[in-house]
UniProtKB/TrEMBL annotation:
InterPro entries referenced in this protein's UniProt entry, alphabetically: GH3, GH3_C, GH3_M
PANTHER family xref list: GH3 DOMAIN-CONTAINING PROTEIN
Superkingdom of the source species: Bacteria
Pfam families linked to this entry: GH3, GH3_C, GH3_M
Organism, scientific name: Sediminicola luteus
Taxonomic lineage from the root: Bacteria, Pseudomonadati, Bacteroidota, Flavobacteriia, Flavobacteriales
Official protein name in the record: GH3 auxin-responsive promoter family protein
GH3 middle domain boundaries: 297-362
Amino acid sequence: MAVIGNIIKGFIEVKDALTPEANPVEEQQQVLRQLLDKAKDTEFGAYYGFKELLDSDDIEHSFAKRVPYFDYDSIQNNWWHKLHQQKENITWPGNPTYFALSSGTTGKESKRIPVTDEMVDAIRQAGIKQVFALSNFDLPPDFFEKEIMMLGSSTDLTEKNDHLEGEISGISASNIPSWFRGYYKPGQEISKMEDWDERVQKIAENAPKWDIGSISGIPSWIELMLQKVIEYHDLKHIHEIWPNLQVYTSGGVAFGPYEKSFNALMGKQITVIDTYLASEGFIAFQARPETTSMKLITDNGIYFEFVPFHPEYINPDGSLTSNAPVLTLSEVEDGKEYVLLISTVSGTWRYVIGDTIEFTDIDRAEIKITGRTKFFLNTVGSQLSVNKMDDAIKNLEDEFGIKIPEYTLCAKRIEGEFYHCWYLGTEDQANGQDLADRLDSYLMEANKNYKVARSKALGGVKVTVVQPNVFYEWNARNKKKGGQVKMERVMGEEKFKDWEAFIEEISTT
């Protein structure tokens, strides 16, 4: 009998029952006041008059009027660059202990996002909140005695001047509490390995020693790890070696496109729980099994604002126009898409994180991620966001009975007319023209803006079918494998030329 598991589960259920009902709007007002008070004597706080803001009768709207929007380049060039000169009290008291390296999906030189000790603690507290929310998922007591596979970036952080650098998953894993280390796999020694292939090989070799109950990580890299374990031990599915695997905590990207290929690696159905952990902080997690939406963490060091996601407010590089309106949590509406802004205990202020979200339950502050501002494809007015592209891919999977875990596309000019040129990653047999025809017709049925664009300057859809591993090798060449690395869903024409040259190169070798 799972005695310890029963005790842990009982504690979680009691804690959940005793926790008072939250008011997300009031929590956000309190978080903003705490952030302004803590940072009022920093250079940033003095420049924007945080002390005066704290005396305002309407702090939220006064804050929005006084402090402009920032993306990474603007806050780095104006403020954060001073942190690398060992200056203190710039946008947050002191100097950050860590910097999270984030190449995101752009493939450019890594961004360096400050991560303070307060943010490390906030991420840890958010993880604890998520554990308590497991009481809602009706998991058996023995689940709470199983080991947890956390597949992120290397925990071997780089020391630079007076701080440490690494990806946020590596920073978080390097700060796990001592009591949790016995549950944490693949363990500190393997997690420090920088080389992705070497790390996954070691995981495969050690897999029989572990009793894994849950796994977490970005879907594409989790799939590759599971495939490696299955292949190494000549298994039919992963449950032959980890029979007690019951939960997958997804994050980083939408799980939808990976659902079919992921489930094909399972021997039985498992619970999938979505999370939203970015380099800038732990933003949301799925708290209920009745929905795939995630609950914003409204009481834990992050203040949220929301800009309506309309083409006229988005610059070509994905940043916001200076006149874009902003809403507080008390002003948003269900079913509307917004660009997410955050201000945090790491000294990010009104920061455009680059994601777009939609509210599904305002009272619970529940959201779903709908895409990226940079991946909003609006060539000749087609207005395709990532969630609409994901829906189209899922439709292809259902209609053709295939799995398409990866894709990318570009609006490419061909003989004076624009075409949406898609590359679909699948191991299944599929005819590119048949997929293109159905993709085109589905988008016209589902998106009136796309239909209008097709009647004007958008010539149609072209599809090229490639193996999924092509996408992983592209990431390996341009960034690296594993960790927080994600495939760009939409490319500009110059980047797309590099992509097609890469495809041509590997097809001839």
